[in-house]
Amino acid sequence: MNTNTNNGRVPFVQKMAFGAGHLVNNLFPGALGVFSFFLLTAFGIDPIYAGLLSAIPRFIDALSDPIIGFISDNTHSRWGRRRPFIFVGAILCGLFFIVQWQMDEKNGTVFNFWYFLICSILFILFNAIFATPLIGLGYEMTSDYKERTRLMGFSQTISQLAWMIVPWFWVLIADKNLFANQAEGVRKLSIVVGLICIVLGVLPALFCKEENTTPPENQAKLNLKNAFNNLKHLMKDMKNMSKNNPFMRLCGATFLVFNGFQMVSSFSFFIIVFYMFNGSYEQAGTLPAWFATISALATAFLVIPIVTFLANKFGKKNAFVISTIISIVGYVLKWWGFNPENPYMIFMPVPFIAFGLGGLFTLMMSMTADVCDLDELRNGLPRREGTFGAVYWWMVKLGQALALAIGGFVLEGVGFDQNAKVQSIETMHNLRIWDIIIPSVTAGLAILVMWNYDLSEERAIEIKKELEKRRAQN
Predict the structure, then answer these.
(1) What letter would DSSP give residue 214?
(2) Cis peptide bond upstream of 382, omega within 30
(3) Are 383 and 361 in contact (CB under 8 A)?
(4) What are the pLDDT digits (tens) for 220-255?
(5) Core vs surface per residue 35-44: b (16+ CB within 10 A) or e
(6) pLDDT value of residue 1
C-alpha cells in the first residue's frame, strides 16, 4: 500500500520539492559547461589540460554512479534509503562547486590544474551522492502508472528553468560593468550558483516521502567485510538489467535521441554566427542565448504538458513515437529557419525540436519506474530503483562523451576552422546538412528501437496487482 499519496497522487508540495532537486540536477551541469570554457580564456589552462580536466572526472563519475545506486538501494535508516544521501550530497556538492572555481589566474597552469582536478573529482563524487538517490526517489514516490508521468513531467518542467538561466551566464561573465575580468565573474557567479543549489537541493530530502517496500533482511549488508560480495551482487544486478528487454530499449532509445541531439548541439551556435552573421559575434549578440532560452521555455510550458497528456491518453510508447516524429519535423525546418535575411526565423523550428528532449526524459523516467516494478516481479527484493537510475544515466553520460567527440570529427570533416573569422560557403552548407541529418536519423532509429516495447499500461497494472498480492502474503 502506498502511504505517501492519495490514490496514487503525489502531493503538490512533494512535486515542488522533487522538481527543485531536478532543477539543481540541471543547473550544475549547465553552469559547469559554461564555466569550463573559461578555464582556457580566464585561467590560462592549456587546451590539452582542459580536456583532461573534463575527461577524468567524467570517468570517475561513470564508475561511481552504479556503486552509489547500489548503496542507496541497500541503505536502511530512520530517514529512509534516499533522503540522507540527498541532504548531505546537496550541501557538499554545492560547497565544492564553489570551491573548485575559486582559482587565481596568477597561480599558474600547473597549480590551477591540480587544484581544479582534485576539487572537481570531489564535486563529481558528492554530486553523484546527491543525484543518484534523487533519481531513485522519483521512481518510488508513486506506484500509479499515470501519476508517474505527471510527476516526471512536472519535475522536467521545473528543471527547464536551469536552461532558461544558463545561456545568460555567458553574457554576465563577459559584462565588464559587473566584473573586472572573466576570472572574477566565474568566481563570484559560482558562489551564487552553489548557494542556490544547496538551498534547492535539500528540499527533496526535507519534504519528499519515500516508500521502501524492501524489508532490511532482504537488503545487502553494507560494510567493509562484505565489500567484495557487495560488488559481486552489484555485477549480478547489472547483468539482470541487461536481460531486461524493456529497460534496454529505454536505454537504447535515450542513447540515440539524446546523443544525436548532443552531437550537433554546438552546430546551431556556429551556424548562427558564421552563416547568418558572417562570423560576427557582435552582430549575433544575444541571439544564441535567446535561442537556448526560448527552447527551454517551449519545452517547459508547451511540450511537457502535451507529452504528459498524450502519454496518459494513448500510452507512453505511443507518446514517445509521436513526440520524436514531431522533433524530426523540427530538425528539417532548421533548413529554412536559419535564414540570414530574417534572423528571427530561427525560433520557428524551436517548438518542434523541443519535443525531442522534452518528451524523451519525461517519458523515459516514467517508464523506468514501471520497469522497476517488472524487475521486482522477476527477481524479487530488494527494489533497485537507485541502481536502475544509475545505469540509465551512465548510458546517457557515456553516450554524451562519445557524441561530443564525434561532433568534433564532423566539424573537422566539413572543414570548419576554429581560428578563421569567416567560414567557406561549402563548409557552412555541409554543416547545415549534418545539423539536420544526424539528429533526424538517430531519432528515427530510436523509434525503431521502441516499436516493440511491450510494457503497456495494462501490463503495468497487472504487475502492480501481482506485487501487492505477493507483499500481502509476506
Answers:
(1) -
(2) yes
(3) no
(4) 565 556 666 767 767 777 777 888 899 999 999 999
(5) bbebbeebbb
(6) 37
List pLDDT tens digits, range 348-402. 999 999 999 889 889 998 999 899 888 888 877 677 888 888 888 877 777 766 7
The residues, ordered by sequence, that sit 6+ positions from 282 with a Cβ below 8 Å of its Cβ are none
- Please state, in angstroms and rounded to a whole number, the distance separating the CA atoms of residues 263 and 278: 23
Model confidence, pTM:
0.81
Q: What is the distance between the alpha carbons of residues 163 and 157, in angstroms, rounded to a whole number? A: 11
Q: Are 186 and 180 in contact (CB under 8 A)?
A: no
Report d(CA 441, CA 186) in Å as an integer: 38
Mean pLDDT on 4-11: 69
Per DSSP, what are the bridge partners of residue 6?
Answer: 9
> Which residue bears the cell 526524459?
361
CB 156 within 8 A of CB 304: yes
Q: Are 445 and 256 in contact (CB under 8 A)?
A: yes
Q: Which amino acid, one-letter code, is at 239?
A: K
Q: Residue 289: how many CB atoms within 10 A of its CB? A: 18
Query: Mind giving me the DSSP string for 18-38?
Result: HHHHHHHHHHHHHHHHHHHHH
Nearest C-alpha neighbor of 371 from the set 254, 461, 246 = 246
DSSP letter for each residue of 327-388: HHHHHHHHHHHS-TT-GGGGGSSHHHHHHHHHHHHHHHHHHHHHHHHHHHHHH-SSP-HHHH
Residues 357 and 400 sit within 8 Å (Cβ to Cβ): no
The H or E element that residue 83 is part of is helix 83-100
The answer, yes or no, to whether residue 218 has pLDDT greater than 60, is no
Distance between CA atoms of residues 136 and 71, nearest Å:
12
Q: At 355, list the grid cell.
A: 519535443
Contact (CB, 8 A) for 370 and 460: yes
Please tell me the distance from the alpha carbon of residue 77 to that of residue 84, in angstroms, as a whole number: 8
What is the rounded CA–CA span in Å between residue 215 and residue 76?
Answer: 9
Closest CA to 435 of 341, 366, 302, 338: 338
Residue 406, Cβ density class (10 Å: 0-12 exposed, 13-18 middle, ≥19 buried):
middle
The answer to whether 435 and 268 have CB atoms below 8 angstroms apart is: yes
Burial status of residue 451 (CB atoms within 10 A of its CB: 0-12, 13-18, 19 or more): exposed
pLDDT (average), residues 40-55: 73
